[in-house]
Design brief:
By secondary structure, this protein is an alpha/beta fold. The chain has helices spanning 18-25, 34-47, 69-77, 87-95, 112-121, 131-143, 179-186, 212-230, 256-267, 280-283, 316-320, and strands at 4-7, 10-13, 16-17, 29-33, 58-62, 81-84, 103-105, 125-128, 148-155, 177-178, 195-201, 237-241, 273-276, 287-298, 303-307, 326-328, 337-343, 352-360, 367-370, 391-396, 399-404.
Length: 424
């Protein structure tokens, strides 16, 4: 469920007509619904709340999905922790006062500087990806006279049945360690005086709509945990990662409660606290991207709807062949539908927002909303073709706030310089 809807023919985010935002700020502009962010965060925390003697899960929002400070602050106020993959994300969470005691640091290529920054910040846990990383973290923690808490990320070789670019738990992916290797490496942990391995981490992919891959991965993780405990290792947490899917078109993803019902019985009585790293589920359907129609160009068997919003603003259709619903800000009243490609102005054939889409043919000047754009939208945007990045807006009931100004053209070359060239 989200808080975008038509009222008297106008498309609204909560109580705000999106055409009013477009008139004030122009396009492209990202618009996020605070009520939707809060609702989805609550659904997850409620589904995994403490019950039947099992502890509540630690829900850590995946900052890479949407790292706007206002979004992070709103979720921190909801009591969520955070999942990080870079020092920049760590600094963003710190900037809004996020709880470091609920923060985990993931990622396959953490630098020494990033590990030091996270250690000094006092984060809850590191998700370790390799023996070399574990040894480096142990040395750095010793240098600071601290004891770091961590888990090893397992690669359970489970097919998440999602797009090939966002599956992360199959053999051959760069993430995690094969279970047998991880169990063998755990024996080395007794020599690490400043590193405390207390958990197991999984992350099998993103936009997962079926529960069976999670069940398979959890069962494999529990077998590894049993083997580790039999060798005297103390395992307290099981991090299930993120990946819970959302509706882009006609998917029927599991709800947070169905997710909890699928995995909680498997870990019941195991003395494990679950950690979750959701991102897309919280932010995906909480955002839209506003676009303006520039031209209608007849083509072979279809028309091209040329808009001012491009793959540099939203790369998911080009990169993942992803579907995003597109709706007019003024509701169409009947009329014949046409087969169209919705394309942007960038000089790439891959620059499109929709292909082979049957929709009411808009007119130049019409405004459109690209739905389900709150996750992996602005965070993956770029300045390709020297295009300033979009503005971002957060709607709260009948009020809206600009939470990121649109980049100016001078922002495009900020930090660059022209040296004094010697004469040829």
């Amino acid at each position: 469920m989200d808080h975008f809807h038509y009222r008297k023919g106008d498309y609204l985010c909560e109580g705000v007509a999106l055409k009013a935002i477009a008139a004030k700020l122009g396009t492209p502009t990202y618009v996020y619904s605070l009520a939707t962010l809060r609702r989805h965060a609550w659904q997850l925390t409620e589904a995994f709340a403490a019950r039947d003697g099992e502890p509540e899960a630690l829900v850590c929002y995946s900052v890479k999905v949407n790292s706007n400070l206002a979004v992070i602050k709103a979720l921190a106020d909801q009591g969520l922790g955070f999942d990080l993959v870079s020092e920049g994300e760590l600094r963003r969470v710190q900037a809004v006062g996020g709880d470091m005691g609920k923060t985990v640091f993931a990622g396959v290529g953490k630098t020494e500087a990033e590990l030091l920054r996270a250690l000094k910040a006092g984060i809850f846990m590191f998700n370790i990806e390799s023996l070399a990383e574990a040894e480096l973290l142990n040395r750095l923690a010793g240098r600071l006279k601290r004891r770091a808490k961590a888990d090893f990320r397992l690669n359970p070789d489970v097919d998440a049945h999602t797009h090939r670019h966002i599956t992360t738990g199959k053999k051959g992916n760069k993430f995690g360690l094969p279970i047998a290797d991880a169990v063998a490496l755990w024996a080395k942990s007794k020599a690490w005086k400043n590193l405390e391995l207390t958990g197991v981490h999984l992350h099998i992919g993103s936009q997962i709509t079926q529960m069976e891959p999670y069940r398979q991965a959890v069962k494999k993780a529990l077998a590894a945990i049993q083997a580790l405990r039999s060798r005297g290792h103390r395992i307290e947490t099981l991090n299930l990662g993120g990946g819970l899917g959302i509706i882009y078109k006609d998917e029927q993803p599991a709800t947070p409660q169905q997710f909890a019902d699928a995995v909680r019985p498997l870990v019941k009585g195991q003395g494990l606290r679950l950690i979750l790293e959701p991102g897309r589920y919280i932010a995906g359907n909480a955002g839209v991207l506003l676009a303006k129609v520039l031209y209608i160009k007849p083509g072979e068997g279809r028309s091209f709807v040329i808009v001012d919003t491009a793959m540099n603003d939203l790369i998911r259709p080009s990169f993942y062949e992803a579907y995003h619903g597109i709706l007019p800000l003024r509701q169409a009243r009947g009329g014949k539908k046409a087969l169209v490609d919705v394309v942007g102005p960038i000089c790439e054939s891959a620059d499109f927002l929709a292909k082979d889409r049957l929709m009411a043919l808009p007119a130049p000047g019409d405004l459109l909303a690209v739905r389900s754009a709150g996750a992996y939208g602005f965070t993956m945007s770029s300045n390709y073709n020297a295009r300033p990045r979009a503005a971002e807006v957060l709607v709260d009931g009948k009020r809206w706030h600009v939470v990121r100004q649109r980049e100016s053209f001078s922002d495009l070359w900020r930090g660059e310089s022209i040296p004094a060239f010697s004469k040829a």
